[in-house]
Design goal:
This protein is about 40% helix and about 15% strand. It is an alpha/beta fold and about 425 residues long. It has a domain at about 60-185 and about 420-430: Nucleotidyltransferase, domain 5. A hairpin with a 3-residue loop joins strand 9 (about 205-210) and strand 10 (about 215-220). The N and C termini lie far apart (about 55 Å).
């Protein structure tokens, strides 16, 4: 790394090379505290469910995917062979993103978004990508919003029942069941349902790195435990882990979020924050003389940067249609290119290391993956993971080193088309 950039990052307390193995052990310690009912950063949410043993066949289910940015809804139909088909798909913005909503406004908006699916199935698989305490009947109590959603009256309320009540008010028959599941659980279930012929996995992990970040894994049975008398899927809420070193850039971005002082891990590596982190770092670099005067002035004139812009620059630094590339092509020196590239790359690199840490901890905690013929299946979802500059390549490389070479644990990262929709559909039909 450029010595000047390295000194700048160090000055602002940005750790350039996180030791993944050591960090994974700290994360594991926190996970185990949560599993044992002790105080922990992560929620370690029980789901009281496992992937179904048999294929779902001859059933219909309404699927809702309420994510960090979008609200998607559709009908999923499983035929006699268990092959799913998706119909009536609609997408709109997630309620509560643009402005704060009351409890009634929030669920009324949901009901309006679902009008095209009225009474087309009596089961709903509700992928709700926020910290939720899952109940044994499949409903969930919202613990709090992340990803900048603003509907404070909804916190502490049963999401499934509240939605069902709103649907009835809007002329629906009361649904037979509304099953809440996190997007990581949906990813895990999709991975479990999508195995290739002749391939067997020892366990499953669902990992999301998109607008937000989180992981779910299957916790084996624990002798003498009331909650874990048998195995079950656990949602970690990995983004809540706070034993991370915050740089000045992290503190700057955190101070401007709706919930400062929380979700340090997520704010350090997910798509909603990588753009603002890059903006904070580059503007500080501009103010401190790391860039030529003309480039510094133009960067300071920007009011924000998105991950699309920063990753786009890393992927194609001389594409003048990109915001940063245009600035540099107009008046930048070779050293300016180097400084900007290395600062942005350091932020992306840290995201990859955080992601690898979470996956390594989940594989270890699963107790699986001890045979190369039966690896742990990791389904990774999210545009930040799949599309951001070199993230997925780096994650795979770190896992190969930390898990396979050092610990003799085996894993396989897969992707499945329409994974969250498929997983939510399966989750919506699990009998409890």
């Amino acid at each position: 790394m450029n010595a000047k950039v390295s000194a700048f990052l160090s000055k602002h307390n940005f750790v350039q090379h996180i030791d993944i193995d050591t960090f994974a052990q700290a994360l594991l310690s926190d996970m185990r505290k949560g599993i044992n009912g002790e105080k922990s950063d992560e929620d370690m949410i029980r789901t009281w469910t496992n992937p179904p043993q048999n294929k779902v066949k001859n059933q219909k289910v309404i699927v809702i995917d309420a994510g960090g940015t979008n609200f998607r809804s559709c009908l999923v139909t499983f035929d006699a062979e268990g092959v799913p088909s998706i119909s009536n798909m609609e997408k709109t913005s997630m309620p509560g993103i643009e402005k704060e909503l009351s409890f009634k406004e929030f669920f009324d908006k949901f009901a309006e978004n679902l009008e095209h699916l009225k009474n087309q199935a009596d089961s709903i698989g509700f992928c709700f990508s926020y910290p939720t305490e899952i109940q044994k009947d499949g409903d969930g109590i919202l613990l709090g919003f992340s990803k900048e959603v603003k509907a404070p009256e909804v916190v502490g309320k049963p999401i499934g029942k509240s939605l069902a009540d709103a649907l009835v008010e809007h002329g629906w028959n009361r649904p037979k069941r509304v099953s809440l599941l996190n997007d990581t659980v949906a990813a895990l279930l999709a991975g479990a349902a999508s195995g290739q012929k002749g391939v067997e996995y020892s366990s499953y992990i669902g990992f999301i790195l998109g607008t937000g970040m989180n992981a779910a894994y299957i916790q084996p049975a624990i002798a003498g435990s009331k909650d874990f008398a048998s195995s079950q899927i656990v949602v970690c809420e990995s983004g809540k882990f706070c034993s991370v070193i915050q740089s000045d850039f992290d503190k700057d971005v955190d101070s401007k979020t709706t919930k400062p002082g929380t979700f340090f891990m997520e704010k350090g590596c997910s798509g909603a924050y990588l753009g603002p982190l890059s903006y904070s770092a580059l503007t500080m670099a501009a103010k401190e003389g790391l860039l030529s005067a003309k480039v510094a002035d133009k960067i300071l004139a920007l009011d924000k940067l998105t991950l699309i812009e920063t990753s786009g620059f890393l992927l194609a630094p001389y594409d003048s249609e990109n915001t940063l590339a245009k600035i540099l092509s107009d008046c930048g020196t070779e050293e300016d290119y180097d400084v900007v590239f290395q600062i942005l790359d350091a932020i992306v690199e840290r995201s990859a290391r955080y992601s690898a840490t979470i996956l390594a901890a989940c594989v270890i905690q699963s107790g699986a993956g001890k045979l190369p013929s039966k690896p742990v299946c990791i389904l990774c979802n999210g545009s930040t993971y799949h599309k951001t500059y070199k993230i997925f390549e780096r994650v795979k490389g770190y896992l190969e080193e930390i898990l396979t070479r050092q610990k003799g644990l085996y894993w396989d990262i897969i992707a499945v088309e329409n994974d969250i929709t498929l997983g939510a559909a399966i989750g919506g039909l699990i009998e409890r």
